[in-house]
Amino acid sequence: xxxxxxxxxxxxxxxxxxxxxxxxxxxxxxxxxxxxxxxxxxxxxxxxxxxxxxxxxxxxxxxxxxxxxxxxxxxxxxxxxxxxxxxxxxxxxxxxxxxxxxxxxxxxxxxxxxxxxxxxxxxxxxxxxxxxxxxxxxxxxxxxxxxxxxxxxxxxxxxxxxxxxxxxxxxxxxxxxxxxxxxxxxxxxxxxxxxxxxxxxxxxxxxxxxxxxxxxxxxxxxxxxxxxxxxxxxxxxxxxxxxxxxxxxxxxxxxxxxxxxxxxxxxxxxx
Length: 271
Hints:
Elements: H1 3-17, E1 20-27, H2 35-48, E2 53-57, H3 65-68, E3 78-79, E4 82-84, E5 86-87, E6 92-95, H4 112-124, E7 126-127, E8 131-137, H5 144-153, E9 158-163, H6 167-182, E10 187-198, E11 205-206, H7 213-221, E12 225-231, H8 233-241, H9 252-270
Parallel strand pairs: 1-8, 1-9, 2-6, 2-8, 4-7, 9-10, 10-12
Antiparallel strand pairs: 3-4, 5-6, 10-11
Helix pairs in contact: 4-5, 6-7
């Protein structure tokens, strides 16, 4: 991209992002920790609180947001050079490369520059409108996509790091925290996902993936600890059926996530 086009794109992004009050990134140091599930349920919960929310799926190769929200068959409307968000609920809209592919099984076989152009297009050509929150679901790791999102949006309110209690996941979550600090993105906090298993028969907790590692990492890295989300088979079923688990307020998972959302809002809105 030449300098003049780059400046034009930068101004377009600044204008669009200026209409969004708060921008949040959800990231993880490695895959398989439930980051996308957390991002989708966070966006859904903010919408349930009466806020206008836009959810951006920045995982170009693994766009799972359409599946988790139960809208795999929907497609974004494209008119001229404008792309329109898919309406999920009256308060929640989303964009994903999955909404622009011919069908759900189409692979995205792109190298880095094409992925970066897609993310830039999400920010310049998508009609975001006036929003209270933008939630960006990033792919695992600290590579091209997270770096591009930070550099293009510029004013990110903060990042949420999702991890599991295992030592390997915690090692990678520390890298994600340090990535945020190096790029001067405030760390909203760490979420310890799959923290204990809720027995479907007796309701008791069993620590099959260890326990407390996320909180320990938060203390060591001097960042907030947002809470633990237990592993619950109902949560898996909810994701597969496209039903956000935050709707299950009577469950331990729903209760834990409700407290996490409160902490996220306090951090972002008070700051």
